[in-house]
Each structure stands twice: as C-alpha cells, then as structure tokens.
Amino acid sequence: MVNKEDLARIVGPERVVTDEDALIAYSFDSSFVKGERPECIVKPRGLDEVRQLVRLANDQGFCLVPCSSRGPRSRGDTVPAVPGAVIVDLSEMKAIRRVDQRNKVAMIEPGVTFAELQAEVEKHGLRLEMPLTPRQNKSVVASLLEREPTTGPKYNWDAIDPLCCLELVFGTGDLFRTGNAAGPGSLDEQWASGQAQKVPMGPAQTDIARLIQGAQGSLGIATWATIKLELMPALRKGYFVAGQTPDELIDFTYKILWRKLPDACLILNNVNLAAIAGLDQEDLPPWTLLYSLSGLTHLPEERLDYMEQDLAEIARELNLTPRRNLKGVAADRMVDLVSRPSEEPYWKLRKRGACQDVFFLTTLDRTPEFIRAMDGLSRELGFARENMGAYIQPIRHGTGCHLEFNLMHDPTSPEDTDKVPVLFDRAGRACLDLGGFFSRPYGPWSKLAYAQCPDTVSALRKIKNIFDPRGVMNPGKLCFNKEA
Amino acid sequence: MNSLPQDMYRELADALGEENISQEPAVMDGYAWQPAMNLTNQKWIPRPAAVVLPATTGEVQAIVRTCNQHRVKFKAHSTGWAAWGGPSQEGELQIDLRRMNRIIELDEKNKFAVVEPYVCCAQLQAEAMKKGLNCHIIGAGPNTSPLASATSGWGYGGTGLSTGYSGRNPLGVEWVLPDGEVLRLGSPGSGAGWFSGDGPGPSLRGIMRGFSGTQGSLGVFTKCAIKLFPWYGPREPRVEGVLLDVKTEPPETEKMFFVVAPSFQKYADISYEIGNAEIAYWFCRSPLNAGVDLFMPRAGDRIFESKPLRALLKAFQHLGVALLSSPSRREVEYQEKVLRKIALEHGCILLDLSKAPGYGFWWWLMGVRSIPTALTFRAGGDFLTSYGSPVEYDNAIRQAEVAKQCKQKYIDQGFFKDDMSDIGWGGIYEGTANWGHCETAAMFDRRDGKAEGRSRYLEDSAETTVQHTLGLGLSNLPPGAWKVYGPKLHNYHLWEARIKKAFDPNSVGDEQWYVPSIDEIEQEASSAEERR
Amino acid sequence: MNDLAALKNDMEGCSRCSHCKWVPMAQIKSWRFAKVCPSVDRYNFHAYSGGGKLIAANSILEGRSEITEAVMEIIYRCQLCGACQVSCQAYRDDIDLADVLLDLRARCVSEGYVLPEHLLMIESMKKEDNTLGLLKADRGAWAKDLDLLDINTQQVEVLFHAGCRYSYDEDLRQTVRNWVRLFRNAGVDLGAAGPEESCCGGRAFEMGYQGEMRNFAEDMIARIKASGASLLVTPCSDCYYTFKYLYPKNGLDPGVKILHAVEYADLLIKQGRLQPGKCAPMRVTYHDPCHLGRRGEIYKAGWSGSNKLHRPVRFKQMGNLGIFDPPRDVIRSIPGIDLVEMERIREYSWCCGAGGGVLEAFPEFAGWTARDRIEEARSVGAEAIVTACPWCERVFKDELKQSGDPMKVYDVIDLIAASWGG
Questions:
Q1: Last residue of a domain, one of A215, A231, A247
Q2: Domain of A271: which CATH number?
Q3: Quick check: A191 contacting B, CB < 8 Å?
Q4: What is the sign, positive or negative, of the torsion defined by CA atoms of B301, B305, B308, B313?
C-alpha cells in the first residue's frame, strides 16, 4: 500500500496528485481496456527521483505505471490493471538535453513531444523521422518505446530505430544505460571523445533497449532517450500515385524501395488521406501512394532531377502516373502534413469524433488479403466502409509492413458503440488468423497474440522476473501476471 | 581427458545415427585446433569429449536435452572458425552444425532469406544476387556463416553503408535454448512468417545479442531470417580466376574510387559527408600500406624498410574506398559528381579505379565478395584485431589514431609484422546514420612463439579504450572481460548472468565467451569476501 | 621419402578457416555447387576436410592421438583431388596441403595401417606391373592391329604411354585406339611399349607406398631413354600428373617432354595438321580431371627454405597452370558441339570420385562423388560430360549405368572421332 508521504518526500508534495478527476482520467482511455483507478499520480523531475520511486515501490509493494504522453491516450497500456497503482507522470520532464548536429542525434527526456523536438532540431537543420502525423502531445520517447513505425522506410534499418540509447531504471531500481551510452566513460567524457550516444547496440552481449521497447512500461522507466535524426533536405518534392486497389500500387512501391529512392513512402486509403488533409474523401482515389524525393547536401536540384526521371521510368513500366497534385491537395503539402504532428483535432478524430485502431505487422505483398478481409468484415457487421481508414507503412527498408485500420466512429452513437467493439474484436482475430503479426499487443490483443507463442511467453516471464522480480512495473500487461 | 558417459553416448548415437557422432581423438582434435582469434594465444583448446552432427532442429533439441540430463556442457558452431567455436574445458560436447546447411527461403520482394547455420555468406550472396539482392558479409570473409554472425558473433562488413551490421540484420529466429526448448523470436513464433524478429511486446533479440552475441553460450540457433539489401550489379557476373588472378568486367554503373584524405580529421569529415549525401554503396577505410601487406607481402617487407617508400605510402594513409553502384547511369553520374565535389572541398585526392586496368579485380574482390581479410594470412600467417567499437565515426577514426600509437610499440619489439602500424579498417554504416567502426589488425606468425607480447598488446589496447573513451569493442571481448568492464558499465555482466541463469538453469551452455550464471558470480564474490 | 614431420610448420599455419571445403570464394556461383571437397561433404566431420587432415597429422605428430583404423579410414576416404590445396593457397602462401596428405598416407603405410584393397593394388603392381590385378602379358592387347612402332625394338620420336586403365579396360578400348588413330592421321609416328609398358607408379605414391613409385619411375625413365623419344604422350591424366609433378618432386627426371593427348591434339589442330569434322548438334560440358587440371600443374622446383612465408608466389602450387584450355579449345573446334561450362571448373573443379585409391577401396563414396558431378552437368543442360581421363570416364559410366541415367560420357577424342564419322 503506497504511503503518499513517502512519495511527497521524493518528488515534493506539490508533485503528488490526488485530484479525483485526474485519477479517473487515468483509469481508462479510448481503448477497450478496462482498468482500475490509480491511487495517485507522481511527477518526478529526474533520474534520482525516479530511482527513489522505484525503490520505494519495491519496498512498500505498490505498483508503478509510467506514462510520458499527455492525453487523450488510446492504447490501454497506461491504464492500471490493478488497484492502488501510482501513475509516474513523466510528461513534465521536458528537457531537450542535447542536439548534436554533426552526429544527427538528440537526447531528450520523456515529456518532450514531437512538436517540441521538431521545432528544436529544425534550428540545427535537422528533422525527425516521425510516425504518421502523431497527436500533438504524444511523447517522443513513448513513441520510440512503442516501436511506432515511421514514415521513411529508407531510414528505418532495424526495429529499434530511430531509438538509439536509453537511460533507464529497471523495476529493481537499478540504473542502466544502453548502447554506447553505457560507456566506458561518463557522458561528458563520451562527448569530449566524439561520441554522442547514437549507437543502439549493447553494451556487450545484450540489447536491453530492445527489451524495454514494447514492454509497455512493465520492465522499467526511461529517463532519457537519444533519437536518430536526419538532415532537413534542401529541397523536397512529394508525389502521389493513385490506384483503385492497393494491389496496383504494391509492385511500384517494392521497386522504388529497392532503388532506395523515396524518403517518406506510405499508402493511405481515401478515408485517411481525406482525414489528414482535410478533404472530401469522395474526391480522392480509393488508394494513394504518397512518397517524397529530396535534394540533400550537394547538388540538390540534380538529385531531384535524376530521381524524378528514374521514377518516371519505373512508373511507365507499370502504367502508373506519379502526380504532384490530387484534387484539393498538393503532394508537397501532404508530405509536410504527414511529417508533422497533427493539428487539433487529432486527424483520426476529425471525421466522427473517435477512432479505434487495428494494427499489426505483415509484408507489403500480403496487405491486399487483409484489406479484403477487413472489407468483408465491415460489410458483414454493417460498418460503413467510408469510416474505415487504412494505412500501409513499409518498414525496415520494406522487409516488413505496418498495416493499420482506423475505425472512425461516433462515440455518442449507440449503433457505433455497439458495433465497433465487435468489429474491433473480430478484426483482431481475423487478422491474426490470416497471419498478421501483432507485435505490439495492446489490451485484448495480448491474450490473442500470446496464445500463439507460448515459448515467447515463457521467455518473457523469465525476463520480467529478472528486471522486475517484485512485479511493481505496470502489472497485468502483455503476458505478465497482475501479481508478482 | 574426459569422455562422455557411455549411456549419454548411446542416447546420442541412437538419436543421430552412428555416423553422426564421434569420440575418435584425431577427429576430436579437428575441433580442438583453434588458433585463430584465440585470445589466450594457445593453438589447441580443450578437446571435446565427442562431436555430434545434427541435421534438424529436433535433433539439436535431443542433444541439448541429453546434455541437461547428464549435466554435460556443450558448444555449438557453424563454420567453427575461431576459438569461441569450441569448448572451454575438457568433457564438453561439440555440436557441429554442418549438416544444417539449407537456404530455406529467399523472399525476393521482401528482401530476406531464411538460412540454416552452415550456409556461408558466399552461397547466400550468389543466390541473392540472382534476385537483385545482396547480403551483409562480415570482414572475416564470405566463408563465414551469416546466421552465426547475426545471432552469435559480431559483424562489421565493408559494405555496411548499404548492408548495415550483422547484429542488426536478423529478423525471425529459431533458437534451441540451453534447456532444450525451442524459442522462435518474432513472427515465426506466432506462425506469421519470418519477416520480423521483435515481439510480441519486448523483443527477445535483446537477450540473444548486443554488440556481440553470446558466442554459443545461450543455446543453438537453428534458423535465422536475415535482411537482404538491394544489389544493383550483374545478377550472374562472369568472373575468371580464384583470387589474385581474378578478372571480370564490371558494368559501367559500378564505379570504384580511392579517396585519399590528408588527415584523420578530414577522413572523418568526408565520411560524414558521404553518408549524409546518401551516395555510395559503400565507403570503407583501408590505408594503402595495408593493401601492400595483403596483396604483396614479400614486396611489402622490402617496401616498409625503405624510408622514401614509407613516406610515399604515408601519403595514402587515409585512404577510403568508395563504390558507387546503381542500375541507373544517371544516378551513378550524380553520385560521382557529388563524390568529386566532396573530395575537392576537403582537399582530397580522388582516383577513379574504374578506369584502371584490372579494375574488375578490385570490384569483385573488395567491393562485392569481401574477400581481402583472408589475405591477412599472407603477411604473417595469422592476425588479431583490436579497437573497433561501434561508435560515431569521429570516435572511430580517433580509434585508428590511438591504435597506431599503441600497436607501434609492439611492432618495434618484434611482436607484429611492420605494416606501418595504421591499417585501421572500417567504414561508415547504415546510410545517413553517421556511425561506423575502425578496427586495427596486426599480422604475425604464430609459429614464432612470441604469444606473450601479443597478449600484452591486447591488454594494452583495451586499457587505452578506457583511457581515451573509445567505446566497448573488439579489444574488450576476451573471456573474462566482463570482470573488468561490467562494473564500469552499469554491471551489465550481472544482468547477463541473470539471463544466463534463467535460460540455462543447469549451466550446460559453455559460458567462456559470455558470463557464467549469477549464482557462480555471487558465490565467487562471496568467497572472495570471506577470504578477505 | 617425404617426411611428415618436415611439414609441421605447414600444419601449424592452419587457422581452421575452412576455405578448404569450399570452391574459392571468388568463384561461388550458387548454393548448390559451392562445395569442393567430396570427403567432408560426404562425411561431415572436420577431420575429413583438407584442413582437418592437416590437424590430424599435427595431432599425431604431437602425440595427442595416433593412427587407428578409424583415422586411417578418414585419411583414405579422400581422392587427393587437390581442391583443398587450391582453395587454401588462394589465400595463403605457406601451407602445402597436398604434400601433407600424401605424407600422412606414407605414415599410415609405414605404421602398417593399409587398406586391403590398396594392398591388392600394390601386389598387382609388383607382380604384373599394373594396378588392376590383370596379366602383364595382356597389357598390349588394346593396340592390336594398330601397327604401332614397338619401342622395345625401334627408336621413336613420340612415345605413346596408354596407362593401366586404358591398357586393360575393354569398355574404353575404342577411346584409346582413337587417340592413336588421331595422331597417325596427323602424321605422327607413334611408338608404344606394348606388354612391356608398366604402371607409372603414381597410384602407389598416392596410396602411401612412396618407395614403390620410385621403382616404377626408374623403370619408366629407363624405358623412355631407351626409346629415343623426345616426346611422351599419354591419354591418362593420372599418368600425366605422375610424370609432370610426382616424378620431379621426388627428384626423378623423365628426360623428355610430356604432353597429355588432348594437349597434343590441340597443338596439332592449331598447327593445321588436324582438322575435326562436324558433329550432330549436342550440348556438352567439360569435366576437368583433377590430375590433368590442378594436379597436372608442373612441379615448381627451385625453392628451398624453412619459412614458406618468404617463398615467392611463383613457387606456390596453386593449380592454375594445369591443362584447362587445350581440351576446351579442341571441343570448341568441332562444329555442332555446344560447350557449356559447369560452375566448378578448372582448378576448382569437383572431383569425379575415382582418384587416390577411393574407386578401389570405397566404391560407394566414389559413386556418390560422381553423382554430384553428373547433377552439376545436368544443371547446365548438358547432354554429355566430356573429359580427358579414363578414370573419370570409368566412374561416370559406372554411376550412370547403375542409375539408368541417360547422360552420356565421352572422352575428347570420342567427339573428334564422331566428327569424322567414327
């Protein structure tokens, strides 16, 4: 049972929140996860306080739920599964500690949002590889730890990217730094020697950062992260390629990825394209590939020029026509929109006020199967096709693909509130059965996903037992029990 | 010398067939001879008690379970090159994965291949190239196992600008844990194919390896899906010759350049520029004096004795080899323009190798098949490597500088062949990522009996990595290194030791190149305390 | 007699890189045909590879192990094809693998570890001057009615040495007779020793009976000298290798120019003294016999020293100076024949399986090796394998017959003869 005075001694009394509305706000989110009301919220300011909090949790036997983003949240990962939890609100740890222009890396605290970081790095001529138009107050660190896909497959070499290193506190209260941030040498010494905490591997023979990613806060708390940055291009041009079906766009996408030509490269259906761009989806083709080409550090116009010509040749071979505009929106603008945090209201909520996302990993060539399955399901359940967004994001140079369906619905409509949970549930099962890989098993997906891989469950429980033996970190998530 | 318990031998023979197990001493010594990268400087390692040749994952499981039952340690290897492939003590079982040698799948569109342990990089590359793809080949050469370097070892490669790093290239993995259970990482564990190695939830690739793998300490990897990368050259090139006589005609869209920078700093600068400009298939440092040693070692002996010739070679010390490769002439022309611009702006010399006679030799050997490392045998018969941590490229180049000073002392004392000391090899990797490595090898003839001095060099070089904050790399990996570095780096060794205990409760995975179980470390610490 | 201990430095050099198991890395073109060592490919334990046997030799020398029946089997389940040496010496200069393998066999014999099948061959050689267990008196029967000059009674310019296999194998009789006809058509006056021809002794050396070869060599050299010949031509690749490599390596000088029959044919064609005819269209592939190709490279005498790291490259037996182009040139000169190359060719060719005493002692292994080669020939669309060695032809024919495979086997001379309507 948590002793709030002890908490106050660590973070300061003004940073222990017991306001009922605030607590209730953490007991649910827009997902279907049913949660418990937390006991209180604490707002640590730095590593030392976080460590003390974790040690206290171990001593007193209460659990911690770390949370870096301000709401509205939607995955259910920060909704406590057990009563008496303490929310560790990191959203006020907002320091952008360092931007290293030469090595293109930034060190940030968990409360830094995409908007804040983007504004800062742009001053250095740099940019972020970002997930698709994230919400305004989404924490960058949270996004990194969730392995959210980013829009530029060329820059995404490994699942961990663009995360580099982490400073974290395990569920035991131990401090750890991952990658070449671990040392040898202090951070200052590393900086003096030309290092910048950019290399994610190690130290030595483990990649603990990979364990923390995807853990939904159940193994430890990150107090800073470094994120790989890219150069702001000197020139950038966007293109659309329209298709009646996603099939028409897939070969072209494979070919341009093989050539490593595009930076941003993603496919949206008309519902999502319209939602992001603020257009009428009836005016848009059913499916659109959006990609960008850049002129970089040297001879930027010439770079764009040859790339355009090469791409035009590839498109001709496949009877496709890259366009600079669609009705109502220029591709340049669209590229800009997908590369920035969303304006309010968050784009997924614009159409109908609420949205449930169904997403998983597959390969690009298989996406049509899943799309057909979802079409079938939505027809069967009477969910209007024009309310289902779809987003295809090639990842890791195109070796895999994030496929996402956005079920936009009216939270005040009884019809929707009846239908959407059923569709969400059926969609998850159907896509799993078709071979979708739910690598980020939020909420009800965790049961489905882990039922497929008992060997992984067994291994993860061993990991949990090592890094959080007392089970204080966000219990009941993933395949971990609610009790230690 | 320990042999296997008889009943254990019998169980294994029954499971695998008599022809797939041996206890014959001369056969065992084929696994005990491990002079390469033997950081103890011995040539023999402990002879295994027996060697087994499984053909399937099921057979590997049977072997591992038997080891657990009888409490016999095991060590598995793919190609088995280097001391970490074999046992660290008498009485262990050697698992030779030679019979598991298939390319199970090569997915052209999604750019990955699923391989078994005994596929070598050259095989994978040859098949991948037919589909317009390439694989990452580590510096040790195309005779190595891509599965082994992706799951268990480390693996920089000259093509890293385009093909990354071995440890960042695995996707789905099939893994027989030290307790005999099979763990499939990522999508194969969920019956969803091989394209992803992470999840659901936390990625267990995190316990499989870090910068380096566990070198066989945490079980046996039986399949690995490995990322492939675009290949823009000819799909079935016609090559004559076997190595030093190689001839081939690369297409005009494969252009190789020597870029010679005037200083360490400038070399780092142009590397960053090349990465940021997103040009080049690869860019890797390779001082010309290193090339002399590899390609003409006898002449090298004479050349290095000549002060004027040394001075001439010194002018080419900061030499990087760049390969421009594209199916598009326009793209290659653009990239060449940019490369020339970068070279000019930084006061570098640019030599267009594609115009030189015998260009095909350089292109195929260095640029594509990544063979030169094997030529390090020619200079002295053997070699070791040092420094080479994965770091931001400024620091990588700093390592070359520090290595030069450190190694020179040992050349002066006759422990290493004189090669002008700085042969720092390594490139800038992963496109725009600005990280890379630079390792410094040293050539010697192991038969000269001067092993002591080489051990001292390794210790010395390791100390300088701490002194100058040069990351944790190849100098810091010998057995037991965790005792020195663990406490300096957040006690990583204790976390690894807990992982070891959790996944290898009976401690049957030979731990020499990883860490022992936490129980053993704590017991040792407690005994040490009592002794005090 | 060669001494295993003298090669300890070679053994010590091995870093266990396993290149000896693979086609040289620069030449690997597929997954399927990347392996080059039949022994380790078949039996898998590292000891079966070239490097593995090197280590075994070192282990024996250091007293860590000894030759046993099992170890002997490992040493002799090896065709001594030399592919391991080519791959090893592509990368390093200081290991003469083939020498170690040969001396390892000599050590086996000296310690009494002999295979009964090999013993039979040696006995046959001693009694009847051939490796096949047949009568010496019948040796010249292959040349009946060919009116070859008898070197026992006449001096000749060119001495034709048929070799044991061609002398006795009736299935290959037409081939060896065609060789004689070819040279006669070119105006060459050929002589032969008839029943007085005896084994070159090379096989004995390979099996570890190094002293026996010397006996046969001295006999051979005397006979050559007595014949007055300035040129010795042989259609047998094993004999070719013995004359070009083993004899000079052991300080024995045949005292005469040596050409393989296919080399001579190539020369005669290029000199305009021979004109092939035309064949019905056929796609063929050429199998490089080990003993004509990489092992047929002349012995590079002239260097001595203790540190092979200082040995100039020109003294390395890399195998690339073997006979590779003449047979190909001959085949290409025949209209109608479409020559396609396999992946493993020239000095990195896959062995047929017959050599080193394997055909006699381990016929199943020989057949297994041949099968792999036949698969490779099929993979390039060849209807026939063409070669220039009776031992290769024997093992391929046997394997194809056993399996009922329609692939054909020809010697180069068979194609020429066919082009003339023969």
A1: A231
A2: 3.30.70.3450
A3: no
A4: positive
Alpha-carbon torsion, ordered A105, A110, A116, A118, to 10 deg: 30
A-B contacts (CB, under 8 Å)? 327
Q: Which neighbouring-strand residues pair with A240?
A: A290, A323
C192: domain CATH number is: 3.40.50
Binned at pLDDT 50, 70 and 90, residue B476 comes out as: confident
Percent of chain B residues topping a pLDDT of 70:
99
Mean pLDDT of chain A: 96
Indicate if A146 and A188 belong to the same structural domain.
yes
pTM equals 0.97
Instruction: Report the pLDDT averaged over residues B78-99.
Output: 95
How is residue A119 annotated by DSSP? Answer: H
Instruction: Point out the residue among C26, C87, C318 whose CB comes nearest to the CB of B364.
Output: C26
- With beta carbons less than 8 A apart as the criterion, state whether B76 and B215 touch: no
B98: nearest CB among C28, C31, C44: C44
Q: Which two tokens stand for residue A234?
A: 């000197």
| Closest partner CB to A195 (pick from B187, B192, B395) | B395
The predicted-structure confidence for C302-347, as pLDDT tens digits, reads as follows: 999 888 988 888 999 999 999 999 999 999 999 999 999 999 999 9
Q: So what's the pLDDT on residue A250? A: 98
Residue range C387-401: average pLDDT? 97
* Full domain range(s) for residue A23: 4-89
Chain C hits for B53, CB-CB cut-off 8 Å, are: 44-45
Q: Within a domain: residue C46?
A: no
Q: Which CATH class is domain B6-99?
A: alpha beta
Can you state the percent helix, strand and coil of chain C, rounding each to 5?
A: 55, 10, 40
Q: N- to C-terminal Cα distance for chain C?
A: 46
Q: Hey, what are C77's tokens?
A: 């389940």
- What pLDDT score does C1 carry? 45
Residues A222 and A160 in one domain: yes
Predicted confidence (pLDDT) at residue B1 exceeds the cutoff of 60: no
Contact B195, B173 (CB under 8 A): no
d(CA A267, CA A389): 11
Per-residue pLDDT tens over the stretch B269-310: 999 999 999 999 999 999 999 989 888 888 888 999 999 999
Q: Mark whether A401 and A323 lie in a shared domain.
A: no
- What would be the CATH architecture of the domain defined by B250-476? 3-Layer(aba) Sandwich (3.40)
Q: Do A207 and B210 touch (CB under 8 A)?
A: yes
How many Cβ atoms are within 10 Å of B143's Cβ, its own excluded? 27
Q: Which CATH number fits the domain B103-230, given the four candidates 3.30.360.10, 1.10.10.410, 3.30.465.10, 3.40.47.40?
A: 3.30.465.10
DSSP string, C158-173: EEE---HHHHH-GGGH
Helical H runs in C62-133?
69-76, 83-91, 97-110, 116-128
The parent domain of residue C219 ranges over 119-270
Q: Is A474 among the domain residues?
A: no
Cβ neighbourhood burial of A317 (10 Å; 0-12, 13-18, 19+)? exposed
Distance (Å, whole) CA C278 – CA A453: 67
A143 is written with which tokens? 């996004």
